[in-house]
Each structure stands twice: as C-alpha cells, then as structure tokens.
Amino acid sequence: MIENKFQIEFLATSLVQKLNRKNIFPPLFNDPESFIAPAGSRPKKPTNSFLICRRNVSKEANRKGAHNMRVISKAAGILWNSATPEEKDVYKNIAERVYEIHILRSSNLVNSTSFKIELTTQPSPISHPLPFPSPSSILETTLNNYFNDHDNNQVIPFNSFNSFNYNDFDENHQWI
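== HMG box domain-containing protein ==
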C-alpha cells in the first residue's frame, strides 16, 4: 500500500511538470454555468473553489493524455497548495458566482414545484390521551382484586396477624 502511495505521488509530481500552468492559473475553464448541474436534475451542493481548480487540472491533464483521477486529484492538490493567494482568489470568485447561481436556481425550483402543502384543517392527533386514574382509585381497585374471589363473589378476609400460616389455606389456595 505504501508503495502504491509513493507511485501515485511520483506520477502526480511528473504530471504537474507536464501541465501548462497558464491554463490552470488563471483558469482556462471559468464559466460558472459549467459547474452547475443541469436544470432538470436534482440540485446538488455547489462546487467549492478547489473542486473548480481540480476540474481545470483534469481538463488540462486529459489534453496531455493523463486520465487517472487519483493521479489528477493528487496533482490538483499539489498545484492548489503551491498556488498564491491571488491565484486562489480567482477560483474563489468563480465559486461564489456558482453559489449565487445555485441559490437562484434552487429557489426557483422550490417556488415552481407543487410541494407546497396548505392545511385546511388541523391534523387529527395520532392517539387520544386517556385520563390517568387517581392513586386512590388504583389502590381501591388493587385491594378489591386482591381480596375478592371473583368466581363466587366471596370476600377473603385480610390476615392482620404479624405471622402468616400456610395451614390456613387448602390445596387450591383458598382460605379455610
């Protein structure tokens, strides 16, 4: 893997030496419209200044016969890092113009589509909230369920002794 990295680095460095820097700084391809997605396609994130530079490096590299995008991207990085602030400013101005066009097109797209939803009535809630029972009613229900035999409505007396005697119940767990 390290050998491959050095090979790409070597190829990129040799490509930089072959490229005509005058076609890259200032950019030969500088039309902001060419960096915007076609009108019918989904609007994408606008291109930044480095990607515009990389596109110019790619076009120049293709004219010189280089087509490997790994090598071209590495060469674009080398050129970008060695560029002066004035050279980068040209690309930044193009990127700002691309951004402005992108905003205009995407706002026109949103305004022209039928994605606007107007609510005529309030949406119904997904579920209706139920009142929470009071603690006293919960206690009363629990005690009634515990002390009442529902089969024959017989009340089971509460054992108030501190000790519990299993002999007070039959095999069906009924009070004797």
